[in-house]
Design a protein that fits this description.
Elements (H helix, E strand, L loop, with lengths): L7 H34 L3 H6 L2 H31 L3 H28 L8 H26 L9
Amino acid sequence: MLENCKSAKERWGGVSNIIDRWLQERQDLLVQYCALSSHLEDNEAEELIENGKDLKSLCQILVDYISAGHFEVYDQLLKEGREFEDDEALKEAGKLFTTVDSTTELILDFNDKYLETDDLEAITVDLSQLGESLATRFEAEDRMIAVLHIAHKDLVT
């Protein structure tokens, strides 16, 4: 889609729109995560078992978010870095991708475990670990956006 754009502004402005939508999805993910964590802090685990849609909704948005990152956003960021021949940014992005990838397995494991279960014995510990992984991931993703996209903002005319 973006490959057919005629100007750098059209192309990389389109990347900004993709990133904006993705970051909105991140915000939605965090709202759901915090709401679920709040239920657990209020000792409402039994309520979660009875009404598992909050947990299933969190699982769905987790998978949607990481899929959009891996199959849409990261590709566009790398293309931008290559087009601007920003070797330093691409090198840093490689290290950041390693960090992001290290969180993917835990997130997918959480999804696999809780998408179809009503056994919430370990949910508090698992949510805590998920929160730590998400924080690590978001920090690396924000840095990727900074070095591969925002750094070229002034070059787009």
